[in-house]
Each structure stands twice: as structure tokens, then as C-alpha cells.
Amino acid sequence: MAGGGGWLNEFEANREYSKGTTLVLGEHEGVKIGTLFCPEIFSPELYREITDLGAEILVNISGHGIFRGSESLLSQTRAAVKLRAVENNRYLIQIINYNLSSVIDNRGNIIFASRQIGNEIVSGKVSSLGQKTFYSYNGNWILLVCLTIICLSILQGRPNSTKI
Predict the structure, then answer these.
(1) What is the CATH number of the domain that holds 57?
(2) Does residue 18 fall inside a structural domain?
(3) pLDDT per residue as tens digits for the range 40-77
(4) Which of 28, 69, 74, 136 is the most exposed place for a label (fewest CB within 10 A)?
(5) In whole angstroms, what is the distance from residue 27 CA to residue 11 CA?
(6) pTM exceeds 0.85
(7) Residue 13 counted as domain residue
(8) Tens of pLDDT along 69-126?
(9) How many domains are there within the chain?
(10) What is the C-alpha separation between 135 and 87, in angstroms, rounded?
(11) Which domain holds residue 105?
């Protein structure tokens, strides 16, 4: 249909994707920016890693066009964005097509957001922060310790059911 298959053959030969092996920071006016994409907002470990590399501002770029402004997806991603910002003590900018974009401060507050789904430009000031949280330094091991303590408490509290 396009007048020949040469470009299509070249496209097919070069089309590929692979999992990245390293996280890379961007920089703007001396501020280190860590950007991750789409579902990576649900990965606390990736955001902890990028913060550990020195990111002072976090960004998530998502494509939600296929979901057509789903309220449940927005509420889930909004909750995850707030959690990632607080976990890492960073401002987090979430850029979403076909949903509401927002900027979350390091305490989980929405400091500004788009008012409607569409091509609205949102702007404002964010702070670059360098201080790490306990979670940034230590990761998920604290969750495993808490889970172990809970399980041991449950097991210890069970009465022995011996029959006489």
C-alpha cells in the first residue's frame, strides 16, 4: 500500500525492545531528575533505586489512552504516586495522556493538577530535595521484619490443642 516493502522489511529487521539493565538520571539546570514510565509507578524498588542514584525530583510518564479516563485507574495511580513521593522524600511529577496529570510534594499532597482530561499544560514550581528517608536507605527489609514479627506473634498466641 505504501509503494514497496523495503521500508517495512527494514522496520521489521530493526524493531525490538529489551529490558534495560541500568537506571539513568537526567539533569536540568544542575538538578538531577529520575524519570520512569507507565506501570513503574507501582514499583517502589525502582523509585528507591533512582533516588539512591541521586535523583532530586521524580517523574512518571504514563500512557492511559487505552483506558479512556478510567476513574479507578486514576485513583490507583494517584495513590501510588503519593506513596512513592513520601517514601523517597521527593516531589513527583506525573505526566499522563488521557487522564489527569499532577505534581505531588514530598508529603503526598497534590500541589497542582490538571483540571480536565486533554491537552492541558500544567506548570508550577517544585523543590529539589536531597535528603533520603529511612526507606530510601534501607529498602523493603523492614517490611519483611514486620511480617516475620506478625507471623511469630500469631503462632505464639495460638493455644496448644492437645487431647487428653
Answers:
(1) 3.60.110.10
(2) no
(3) 888 888 888 899 899 999 999 887 767 766 777 778 88
(4) 28
(5) 32
(6) no
(7) no
(8) 677 777 888 898 999 999 999 999 888 877 778 899 999 999 988 887 767 777 778 8
(9) 1
(10) 6
(11) 23-157
